[in-house]
Design the sequence.
């Protein structure tokens, strides 16, 4: 299985290491030509969504990636990646890919001191470590969105069809389960 990782900004290298550990072939999307290589799934890493959104447009990556997601390519966004996937942001006028019908609050736990750790249930996996770094959360979701995890009553993981978005950073904990979930999702087992 081949996974493309968006590598214009953020913590893409940590995702690549985890995916490789799970046996996936991994390559980076840095420019338009990289999208010509076939891949089975796409990871959008954490980082800074405003910067990522700007770079995606400048590099001519935005429309082709959106087209692939709409055509059914499985995508896994973490933190800033979740922000890029959302239909609406409650505290920001930007909208990016608009492929996950949820409303997301950026920096929902506070901008500077909003980093924390929790252990909570993830649907289909069990209790897992969750590290939040200036994280967003999902304020509301359309009825057809599957809620996969919540922390203190706030949604932190959700999926609709081929689109998986989470607000924490599994790539900083030594826990491969969410990446494994994504690979199973691609295989049609989740
Ligand atoms: N606060 C960042 C943003 O709004 C997301 C944080 C992260 O990805 N760790 O883009």
Sequence:
């Amino acid at each position: 299985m081949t996974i493309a990782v968006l590598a214009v900004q953020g913590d893409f290298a940590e995702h690549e290491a985890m995916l490789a550990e799970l046996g996936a072939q991994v390559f980076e999307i840095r420019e338009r030509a990289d999208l010509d290589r076939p891949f089975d799934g796409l990871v959008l890493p954490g980082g800074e969504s405003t910067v990522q959104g700007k770079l995606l447009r400048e590099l001519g990556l935005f429309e082709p990636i959106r087209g692939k997601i709409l055509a059914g390519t499985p995508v896994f966004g973490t933190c800033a990646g979740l922000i890029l996937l959302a239909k609406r942001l409650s505290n920001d006028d930007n909208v990016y890919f608009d492929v996950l019908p949820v409303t997301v609050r950026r920096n929902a736990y506070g901008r500077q001191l909003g980093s924390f750790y929790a252990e909570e249930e993830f649907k289909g996996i069990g209790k897992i470590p969750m590290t939040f770094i200036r994280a967003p959360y999902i304020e509301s979701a359309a009825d057809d969105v599957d809620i996969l995890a919540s922390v203190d009553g706030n949604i932190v993981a959700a999926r609709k069809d081929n689109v998986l978005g989470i607000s924490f950073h599994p790539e900083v904990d030594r826990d491969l389960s969410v990446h494994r979930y994504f690979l199973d999702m691609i295989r049609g087992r989740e």
